[in-house]
Design a protein that fits this description.
Order of helices and strands: HHHEEHEHEEEH
Distance between the termini: 53 Å
CATH architecture of one domain: 3-Layer(aba) Sandwich
CATH topology of one domain: Cytidine Deaminase, domain 2
Shape: globular
Length: about 210
């Protein structure tokens, strides 16, 4: 006869939570296989968002583009210092999207695309934090009726569209924002701040 101890409910709960958290991220191969639409001019998109939001490390910028890749709305917020979790990132992104643009859930096929620019420390190689942001972006887009677009990292080495292998040295995390093109009228400044952003900022300050 063999004797043993059954795992406690607390231990089982902890293991389940860890497994659920680990599954809320996307590996590069999964992201590449998801059919994410390619940006026609990623540097223009990156430069435009960098000019509007001046992101520093730990800043996420979510933007919605029309079919011609014109910027319709964007918002930025600070990622709070907590373990990377796709569900938490999804909620933060969805909150920002709901604040700056109406959903497209009534459409049979999404026509607008959401992209995410995340400024962080380190190099351009994929991290689990990136995987959690990818999961969060994909899920937030589904819940807001948008197409899931590119995930872009911005580091001190430059910018990189993950899953595509495209990138550049400028802008980077420390570069000054480029001026708007003189041939075009500056787009209206996106709304930033709000209750959701303030909560994240207060959490980051603790």
């Amino acid at each position: 006869m063999t004797f043993g101890f059954a795992p406690s409910s607390a231990a089982s709960s902890s293991t389940s939570a860890s497994a659920a958290s680990a599954s809320r991220l996307l590996e590069p191969a999964e992201w590449a296989a998801a059919g994410i639409p390619l940006l026609r001019n990623p540097r223009e998109v990156v430069s435009g968002l960098h000019t509007r939001h001046h992101p520093k490390p730990a800043t996420a910028v979510v933007a919605v583009l029309d079919p011609e890749e014109r910027l319709l709305a964007s918002a930025s917020f600070i990622r709070r210092p907590a373990p990377a979790d796709g569900w938490m990132f999804r909620n933060a992104l969805l909150s920002q999207l709901r604040r700056v643009i109406p959903h497209d859930l009534r459409r049979r096929t999404p026509v607008r695309t959401a992209v995410l620019l995340y400024c962080r420390e380190g190099d351009a190689r994929w991290t689990e934090e990136d995987g959690a942001w990818m999961w969060g972006l994909r899920d937030a887009c589904t819940l807001h009726g948008l197409r899931c677009g590119a995930y872009i990292t911005l580091t001190r080495d430059g910018w990189q569209v993950l899953g595509e292998g495209r990138g550049g040295r400028r802008p980077h995390a420390d570069s000054a924002p480029e001026p708007f093109a003189t041939s075009q009228s500056p787009a209206p400044l996106p709304r930033t701040g709000g209750a959701a952003s303030e909560v994240l900022r207060r959490a980051a300050a603790r």
